[in-house]
Amino acid sequence: MAVYAFLVSLCRDRVWAEDLMQDTFVKASRSMIGYRGGNPRSWLFTIARSVFIDDVRRKRPTPIDTIDEAGVSDPDVAEVDAIEAALAKLPERQRTALLLCDRADLSYADVADAMSITPAAAKVLIHRARISFRSHYTETSA
């Protein structure tokens, strides 16, 4: 379920995320021979991120994020929309790092492995992502 939530956060489309999740598990099952150990969650999230990037490069879809703001009356729905809007404004690398750390609950080292960067770079990237997210969130929710 964490892989699905991660993919929904990346592509902002539940149906597309389901397709990506299926592709992720197919690719993971085919890659089991090449698995070198380590944290299996970060390995799986690495595959999911790769599948997402490959699919975007292949299709170049345009996500539909239009929501009738006048129809939003539930404060929880409005807050979720504000969070998703703030996440959508982040650069892809920052959004990915933030989602892996905060939603998928991976450690900095696991985020670094999943994104093929150093743990120090992962910490900096997540820190900058949180600052940008707060800025965009306060703009959106104000």
Index terms:
single chain; 142 residues; mainly alpha; 0% strand; globular
Average pLDDT over all residues:
83
Derived from helix and strand composition plus strand pairing, the structural class reads mainly alpha
Q: Helical region count?
A: 7
As for the number of domains, it is 1
So what's the oligomer here? Answer: single chain
Order of helix and strand elements from N to C terminus = HHHHHHH
User: Which range does the strand content fall in?
Assistant: under 5%
CATH names the topology as Butyryl-CoA Dehydrogenase, subunit A, domain 3
Number of DSSP strand runs: 0
Return residue spans where pLDDT drops below 50 for at least 5 consecutive residues: 66-72
| CATH class type | Mainly Alpha
Radius of gyration: 16 Å
* CATH architecture verdict: Up-down Bundle
Please outline the major beta sheet.
none
